[in-house]
Amino acid sequence: MIIGSLLLLLLFVFPLWKITLLAPQYPEPLGLNIHITHLSDGNQFNDVNNIDLLNHYIGMAHLPTKINVNKGVVEPFKEFVIIPIVVIILSILGIIFGFIGKRKLYATWLGLLAISGIVGMYDFYNWLYIYGHDLNPNAILKITDKVTGEMMAYQPPIFGFKQMLNFQVYSYPSTGVYFIVAAFLFACLAFYLNFKKKEKI
Amino acid sequence: MKSIFAFLTVAVFLVSCNPAPTSSKSSKGALTGNAAEKVYVAPGQYDEFYAFISGGFSGQLAVYGLPSGRLFRVIPVFSQDPEKGYGYNEETKPMLNTSHGFVPWGDSHHPDISQTNGELDGRWVFINENNTPRIARISLETFETEEIIEIPNSAGNHSSSFVTENSEYVVAGTRFGVPIPQRDMPISEYKGNFKASLSFIKINQESGNMNIAFQLRMPGFDYDLSHPGRGKSHGWFFFSMYNTEEAHSLLEVNASQNDKDFIAAVNWKKIEEYIKAGKGHKEKVKYAHNTWNDDTHTATSKMENEVLVVNPQDVPGAIYFLPTPKSPHGCDVDPTGEYIIGNGKLAAAMTVHSFTKMQKAIADKAFDGDKYGIPIIKFEAVNYGTLEQPGLGPLHTEFDTRGNAYTTFFISSEVVKWNVKDLKVIDRHPVYYSVGHLMIPGGNSRKPFDKYLVAMNKITKDRYLPTGPEVCQSAQLFDISGDKMELLLDFPTIGEPHYAAGIPAKMIMDKSQKIYKLEDNKHPDAVKTEADTKVVRKGNEVHIYMSMIRSHFSPDNIEGVKVGDKVFFHVTNLEQDYDVPHGFAMIGAQTAEMLIMPGRTATSVWEPKEVGVWPFYCTDFCSALHQEMQGYVRVSAKGAKTPIKYTLDDEVPGEEEE
Q1: ipTM score here?
Q2: Domains in chain A, ordered, with CATH?
Q3: Which tops the pLDDT comparison, B27 or B226?
């Protein structure tokens, strides 16, 4: 249980999700690492800024990087403050629960983690939707969807692959998510062992 | 039916008898069937070797791939390059400064890659300028010229720029004897009065910076080429020479009279000891030393005023003459360091000297008199043997790892492969035409990468589609991995390919720089963000601190410039993405465009002469919106009251968020 909770803290080091962009002009793909606190270059130096630069062609909003926030071209990302707090709370709770060692508490923790995860994913999806749809009307490239006849949207996939203009966009969980899963499994294991111990008594 | 068949047979027979108009052409070079496969580098694939081929009278250095023969880049070195702005923009102009002032052109000759332990190390490539004697150092990370040093007391800097086994020195020799110091005197008094210099330029192992350690003041012969000793002969340098007759006119006849000229053997390690012991004297000279600062992206030219001169009589036992027939061009040292080969360009033989024999001859004092105090070793005492009649007009030799030498023959237009120890010809192959130097990657080192050989030809005549009286010079690629040399490919070169240096691609490709980091840009006029862009008037100078990023300039509307102003465009490329250069060109500017790499700053000067609204634009197709990357400068009359004003999208850059 305690190990699982501590694993969560690794989210401060490792990225949660990674979006990879491949195009004819980008044979070495651009990469966007999404951390719980910030965005980082996924593959090469300056990837985040380069993606941000390309986004302006389709009128996509600026990415919430430090540079852009300082420039005032984008609002700071509240999630970069809230999620770390949630992670710390979950981690501390987990450690306390681990010391108390009660099965119910384990279950509660698992529940909290699951809810956080689901809310987090929903929030992530929401942002992808906003970035994909809330486009600058003065965008340089305005392309109409052949099928719907409406303005093309550029919502990146939350999981998997999507072709967006010249870019092949891949979106997959990164190292951080594996630690969450591991944390979840460790907590499950703790729950199970605790359950067995009770049975013996 | 039968008759038709018979007719067809006859027809086929007739057709096959008819000599195809192309057959004589295709036999030239006797290409074998799989040659195409051997040079085919599929789209997107990489070549196996880099070849740095001198641009000759273009003054530049061209970068090709082998075996494809594809040209990747022309590195501007000794000549202005309007394509890149080299020698035109304020940052690079000092690179072409000399003691004679700004010289816009040069004649580049012999590239050589730095070495460690006698093997190529891929740090730098050096190349000499023949006309206004200079040596340049080019980085193999940025592929840019980082330093140019002028050689004082020299003229016709030809027997250059070859490096020693550990890149201790790069060497520069003189082709023309001249009065040293220069003075007003009759040309007919050449003999005995004109002198020559062999300069040893120390290379800083960290920075690569060059400094002339010492100059040997030699008799006024014509020093043609040179090569370092290696392995057992490390510590020695060998210089070929002609005109030991000391003729001052009609050299083609008067410098071709002696049966034997010399190769000078110079023991530089011994000279170092003499210098430590206080030998040599400082002389007042004037030469430019130009260095490129990669942090400020700016060259500075410093005028140096002193050089250490060593006279041969100051250093007994350090310099010897090896008699070598006739007017030798190349003097080439085999990978073991034992054999020193004289390519007597008017002789019908190759002369092979032995380093071991030379050592013994020196110990035995087997001398045949001296010339200007420099002992001449007896020919028999130093000569290993002679390769008789291998061809006509031998110029230059390189080596493989199997004990073979490959020599170019200018007059008989061929490359001859021969075994150095056995002194026997193994193979010969015609070249098209009049070959000068040849190059085997690492051929001037202990470890040749002996798969390919590049022959560099002076004359092409009918080899390519004609382009009027002026046609290209060319390189020819041979496969030398087998017993027989196999001609694989012809490819045209820029200027005149005097010599080349090749290196396996994998030794340098991964350290090739992709961008210049903006945060490391220390250019005093750089802007790091659009918000920093501005226009400042200082008297009649207007300084425009401009940025470029896909796909606009900031600012792109500038007003308040007046006729008679001197306008400085300090332009920074804010991109930090690979292969996104931007260009800058201003209508009517009497200079070249600037091609600016990501993270770099460059400065162009414009002196507007007419009132109006004048556009500038990006010259490099940077993005889908490249055509939109443009701007205007409003030029008002002299004395007009138009205030300085600069905007992007009608807002002053950096002010909106204040």
Answers
A1: 0.87
A2: 2-200 (1.20.140)
A3: B226
